[in-house]
Amino acid sequence: MRKKIYVYFQITFGLFLIALSFDLIISPLKIVVGGVNGIAIIFNTLFNINNSIFISIFLFSMIILNLIIYGISETKKLVYCSIAYPILISFLESIPNIVVLDYSNKFMLFIFAGVLNGIGSGLIFKNGFLSGGTDVIKKILSDKFKIPMATTVFILDALIVSIGGLIFGLKSVLYAIIILYISSVIIDKIILGISNQKMFYIMTSNPEKVKEVILKEFKTGCTEIDALGGYTKEKHHVLMTVIPTINYIKLKNKISDIDSKAFFIITDSYYTYKFDKR
Fold first, then answer.
1. Alpha helices in 48-133 (DSSP H)
2. How far apart are CA 267 and CA 254, in angstroms?
3. By the 8 A CB rule, do 131 and 19 touch?
4. How many helices and strands (H and E) does the chain possess?
5. Residue 271 and residue 199: Cα distance in Å, rounded?
6. Helix crossing, 170-192 with 149-168: angle to 10°?
7. Which domains does the chain have, with CATH numbers?
8. How far is CA 94 from the centre of its chain?
9. How far apart are CA 140 and CA 233, in angstroms?
10. Residue 9: which H helix or E strand, with range?
11. Sheet with 235-244, side-by-side order of all strands
12. DSSP helix/strand/coil, 25
């Protein structure tokens, strides 16, 4: 029960951050960032429809559509966010009157909006929930027309942002891109975490010397992997090791000192597990 409460606390806090970003920055500056928020700004400008009312109607219609297409089990995780989010949008509508911002410094506000959106969306996705809205349309297009999900996300959001550009000008598109890019980077960091380790795949003509350095100087383990060149069909010996990020440059330089022609790949390592064989 505690775990469930904590999950819903994170999701609610995430929705609060997205709503705060929308009511405090995105809506006052009329930035069409894609998704239901972007559509709400377009309808508010063209037809003077209240943002929270439009978002409520849109999200409710997406719940019904998802229920028809995918059934109850696939719709459950849409319901909470679809109800809570418009309530938070409505609750925070007067926030610009309380928190007075300097809207002349737009660039910093866009960065702040991107960070808030990224943290909020990351908390929602990390806990396995969906924010609803246009995500439902994207999923249906992907499933029914066999289009990759990344492509449907790009097409639909690009369409919404482009319509916003026609209404509010080219600057609006550029501002939206800034917010969306920062948001996507933050989402990845929230979901995956911040990497504090690096994984090395090392191919060298002097594997024993490199292995000795890894084991003795860096006090960490090393795995040996047999590899076959895809083009030359030559057999190679690959060393794999994971070290703290702080030692990344040091090991890279050590490998180069031992074998200036060594080939190695370095990637982020987010989690390492050691299973008990018992």
1. 51-70, 76-91, 95-98, 106-126
2. 17
3. no
4. 11, 4
5. 11
6. 150
7. 2-192 (no CATH), 197-269 (3.30.70.120)
8. 29
9. 44
10. helix 2-21
11. 223-228, 235-244, 197-203, 263-269
12. helix
Contact yes or no for 170/27 (Cβ under 8 A): no
The amino acid occupying position 73 is S
Q: Decide which of 119 and 232 is more confident.
A: 119
Could you tell me the pTM of the whole model?
Answer: 0.75
- Report the percentage of the chain scoring pLDDT > 90: 39
How many Å apart are CA 160 and CA 151, to the nearest integer? 14
Q: Which two tokens stand for residue 246?
A: 């702080």
DSSP string, 115-158: HHHHHHHHHHHHTT----THHHHHHHHHHHTT--HHHHHHHHHH
What's the one-letter identity of residue 33? V
pLDDT for 199-222, tens place per residue? 889 888 888 888 988 888 888 888
Amino acid at 244: P
Are 204 and 259 contacting, i.e. CB atoms less than 8 angstroms apart?
A: yes
- Which residues have a Cβ under 8 Å from the Cβ of 147 and sit 6 or more positions away? 141
Determine the residue type at 82.
S
